[in-house]
Design goal:
Chains: A mainly alpha (about 290), B mainly alpha (about 260), C alpha+beta (about 350)
CATH architecture of the largest domain in chain C: 3-Layer(aba) Sandwich
Number of helices of chain A: 14
Order of helices and strands of chain A: HHEEHHHHHHHHHHHH
Strand content of chain A: under 5%
Oligomer: heterotrimer
Largest sheet of chain A: 2 strands, antiparallel
Strand order of the largest sheet of chain A: 1-2
Radius of gyration of chain A: 24 Å
Number of domains of chain C: 2
Largest sheet of chain C: 6 strands, mixed
Helix content of chain A: over 70%
């Protein structure tokens, strides 16, 4: 047997595992999505009930809510990532590693842990509201009728809370690709631009930003995709006030056993993601230097 | 200016975690910041309470099996991808890392369906859902892409001449892998092990679909959280933080965080 | 017994031909160099011997054994890589005995042979060192010892001096050659450095674009190159257009660079306007008197023991001339007129047709 064939056999365990735990489930999902759900009974066939339901105004609205929340998340991740990536590029290797550690370490803590941390900060009894009460800000706002009598600043249980919680979770996924792009830029390009009299803003707009675009696109794609499929944070930080597609899907499966509709929604989610990846590829190609 | 902005960003990243740690040492019955009195009563509670203990053990058992499994299966796949050359190799690679971008909620519900099928089908009756072995299978699927990329990155830095040198000195294909390749990509293997462990230990959504009584730690936290904001959550979170921070430091010392940067790229 | 033979060996990568119909025998104990620019097929040829590349067609023999298709680990060949490829996680001793361990040789014998091998390359006492603690020359010796301990039939050297600085390189060259002669091991050496090739080889095989252009002793390929490519590749050269004035008999009279010379009739004179090769050291510059070919010095550079002149002859061709810095030599300055004294026995008429075929 040639070395090439031997090497190919090394792929087998992973491929076999995937067949059972990845391909088969997805195929089952696809089949179920064309089923029909009637009186708590799922029958297979070729029905478009689930897909039709997806386009009902209620669900379509949830889809667009999810879509726009994901866009906000992506946008804020992007804004926060750039300063970090630029700093990482400027400091000594040792400092760079420390920043890298700081950026990545939250990624390795459970989303649940991080979200519950935010509850302590942002909740009605959280430290920000305690502080606002203490300095009397909340009383002023209550008198003006801007916040209700028993509530504090509306920092969570709304879209703001969800976006903030998710940005906190996915920031590393944006910082790393942008940093990777930036570090590929030859420092002498920037130095010579400086030398030719470019200001900081001009430098950023004409040099740093265009050259970092591949990383920006990669990061945005990743954060957007991940946000579209996120369940935990909207539940914890949204407090039933924010509804997203993953929450609908989970509810349909866990509470109602409505597999066809849940599957159809999942398929639509996957299509959105595949479409995003496709767009991202097109963009990547168009910015290739 | 840049430093100030960064300082604010890092406060944003770390402040909540710091608050959790402080909160975990409260001696009160309820959360409140800053705590009025300090103590370790909630640590004592989570360490002696049956539910917390069970879910912690479940998470530990699952992650301890997932980590080596994912390292071995993912390592073999990474090696196979690195060493072979065939049409459609790029497609196989994309397929093998697809679970990374597939929403885990979709994977979770699909695996749940397969689990139900295994539970009820005659001839199988495997008790898949709600059992640890099925969590292991599911988590391994999720972690393999990370293992493949981490190990793949260290394979790329490996000098292929070393393997050829071993071969010409009489080492067979498998002996070469055993004596040369594996020792030289050790840090990648350890990195894959730790990554897989952490991801499995922290995994929520897929397990959430599969679990009813056999809870893992993240699910136990979640259900407690949904019930009430009890200080036990802060204590257990701090314990999890400590564990993952320790493992992250290990990863750092192995230089694997850099390869994680490549993952995302 | 360990003669190495290539028989009609070709290697294609898709449509691209890396090695075309190679026929070559390396005699037992011979030191043969594969020489050529990068991409000439020399490395592919070496890799076909080691077994990491299989020929598309043709066969390779060691002695009478056909080794085509045999796995690398079963070929009993020693190979020293350009970067030595020492196993960084093993000590010198573990590196050197790796092959013995693979062959399941007993511990005691391993130790005896390890001692022998390290003594051979003068590395006794470094057994416990790690490769990164060694100098470049020491690393190379470890790589050699690691190959030689298995007593291979053939030793392959893939540009082993590339990573060393110049002084060490000269030293290691001599040492390696001495060792090779002592052991009498059939050796193929791959390089793009003609100095290395000339100083070490029994024979040189010059390759270009996958084809063998010439096989011969260093002197043969230097003095009588098979074509213009080799003439230019092997050291400095003046390749000049000449015209035949008178031919017939044992000698030919030609005119080149304004000089008229009577040379021995070459066997391959097939043009009235051949190109001739004259090495720069075979021309000397004399004070301009008499009727000889005149030229003007347009550049002069000192290289310590040598001076390199560039002169323009009266017919407009440019020649380079090297002269030893020697008291007795005439040393003109830039702009001076000189007379060219060309050693007629050093004029080599390039084989015209073959040169056209190859390029």
């Amino acid at each position: 047997m040639t070395a090439n064939k031997r090497s190919m056999t090394l792929l087998l365990p992973a491929l076999v595992l995937y067949l059972i735990t990845f391909t088969a489930p997805l195929v089952v999902l696809l089949v179920l999505s064309f089923g029909r759900f009637d009186k708590s009974i799922t029958t297979l066939g070729f029905h478009l009930d689930g897909y039709i339901k997806f386009f009902e105004p209620t669900y379509l609205r949830v889809f667009f809510d999810t879509f726009f929340i994901s866009l906000y998340i992506t946008f804020f991740c992007l804004i926060l990532s750039f300063p970090v990536a630029i700093l990482m590029r400027r400091v000594q290797p040792f400092m760079k590693n420390i920043i890298l550690f700081c950026v990545i370490s939250p990624l390795l803590t459970s989303i649940i842990v991080r979200n519950s941390a935010w509850m302590l900060v942002l909740g009605n009894q959280g430290i920000i509201n305690q502080f606002a009460d203490y300095i009397g800000l909340n009383d002023v706002l209550r008198d003006m009728g801007l916040i209700s009598r028993f509530a504090g600043l509306p920092l969570m249980n709304n879209v703001f809370g969800v976006v903030l919680g998710t940005v906190h979770v996915y920031l590393p996924f944006m910082v790393l690709p942008i940093y990777a792009s930036l570090s590929a830029i030859n420092p002498s390009i920037e130095e010579s631009a400086r030398n030719l009299g470019a200001s900081s803003m001009q430098l950023f707009r004409n040099i740093t930003w265009p050259l970092s675009l591949p990383g920006v696109i990669a990061g945005c794609t990743l954060v957007f995709i991940l946000s579209m499929g996120l369940y935990v944070t909207p539940v914890i930080m949204g407090g039933n006030k924010v509804v997203t597609i993953p929450m609908i899907i989970t509810g349909l499966v866990r509470d109602r056993y409505n597999w066809p509709t849940a599957s159809a929604f999942s398929v639509m989610l996957l299509i959105t993601i595949l479409f995003t990846v496709y767009i991202s590829r097109l963009l990547q190609r168009s910015v290739k230097v | 200016m840049l430093f100030i902005i960064n300082a604010l960003i890092f406060i944003f990243i770390f402040a909540p975690l710091v608050i959790v740690v402080i909160q975990s040492f409260t001696n009160e019955n309820h959360m409140g910041f800053p705590p009025e009195s300090y103590g370790v009563r909630w640590y004592a509670y989570v360490m002696t309470d049956d539910d917390w203990q069970n879910s912690f053990m479940n998470s530990l058992i699952v992650a301890s099996i997932v980590a080596p499994l994912s390292m071995i299966v993912g390592g073999m796949a990474a090696l196979g991808l690195d060493r072979s050359d065939f049409r459609g190799k790029q497609a196989v690679f994309s397929y093998l890392i697809a679970p990374m971008v597939l929403p885990h909620i979709v994977l979770g519900m699909a695996l749940f369906r397969i689990g139900l099928f295994l539970d009820t089908s005659e001839g199988f009756a495997l008790n898949a859902t709600d059992s640890l072995w099925f969590y292991v299978v599911a988590h391994t699927t999720i972690t393999i892409p990370y293992a493949i990329i981490t190990i793949g990155a260290s394979l790329q830095t490996l000098d292929r001449n070393l393997e050829e040198a071993a071969q010409i000195l009489g080492a067979s294909y498998f002996k070469t892998i055993f004596f040369i390749t594996i020792p030289l990509i050790k840090s990648g293997l350890i990195g894959a092990f730790i990554f897989s462990f952490i991801i499995s230990f922290d995994e929520f959504i897929v397990t959430y679909f599969l679990a009813t009584f056999n809870q893992t730690l993240p699910i136990q936290i979640y259900s407690t959280l949904m019930f009430q904001l009890e200080p036990s959550i802060a204590s257990i979170s701090t314990l999890m933080l400590a564990l993952t921070a320790l493992l992250t430091l290990l990863l750092m010392s192995r230089g694997q965080l850099v390869s994680f940067g490549k993952i995302i790229k | 017994m360990s003669k190495l033979t290539f028989e009609n060996v070709s290697r294609y990568y898709g449509e691209t031909c890396a090695v075309a119909d190679l026929n070559l025998s390396v005699n037992d104990g011979e030191f043969l160099t594969l020489l050529g620019p990068s991409g000439c097929g020399k490395t592919t040829s070496l890799r076909m011997v080691s077994g990491f590349v299989e020929p598309t067609s043709g066969r390779i023999f060691i002695g009478d054994t056909d080794i085509t298709g045999v796995l690398p680990e079963k070929r009993s060949i020693g190979l020293v890589f350009q970067n030595y490829a020492l196993f960084p996680h093993m000590t010198v001793g573990e590196n050197v005995t790796f092959g013995l361990k693979m062959a399941k040789v007993g511990k005691a014998e391993q130790q005896t042979r390890l001692k022998e091998a390290l003594k051979l390359v003068q590395l006794e006492g470094l057994v416990e060192r790690m490769p990164r603690e060694l100098s470049g020359g020491q690393q190379q010796r470890v790589a050699l010892a690691r190959s030689l301990i298995l007593r291979p039939n053939v030793l392959l050297l893939d540009e082993p001096f590339g990573a060393l600085d110049k002084q060490l390189r000269d030293y290691m060259r001599a040492e390696l050659r001495a060792l090779q002669i002592e052991l009498g091991i059939t050796t193929i050496f791959v390089t793009h450095d003609q100095d290395e090739a000339m100083s070490m080889s029994d024979r040189i095989c010059i390759m270009n674009h996958g084809h063998v252009n010439q096989i011969g002793t260093p002197e043969e390929v230097y003095r009588t190159p098979a074509n213009k490519f080799i003439a230019e590749f092997m050291g400095q050269s003046n390749i000049l257009p000449a015209s035949v004035v008178k031919s017939g008999g044992k000698t030919v009279t030609i005119q080149v660079a304004g000089a008229t010379l009577e040379i021995d009739a070459p066997s391959h004179m097939d043009s009235k306007q051949p190109e001739v090769l004259i090495r720069p050291e075979r021309i000397s510059l004399q004070p301009p008197k008499g009727t000889g070919a005149k030229a003007k010095v347009i550049d002069k550079q000192y290289f310590g023991s040598l001076i390199e002149y560039t002169v323009e002859s009266q017919d407009g061709s440019t020649l380079s001339v090297t002269a030893a810095t020697n008291k007795s030599n005439h040393e003109p300055s830039e702009g001076d007129m000189v007379m060219l004294d060309i050693d007629a026995s050093a004029v080599f008429v390039l084989p015209q047709r073959e040169a056209e075929n190859q390029s």
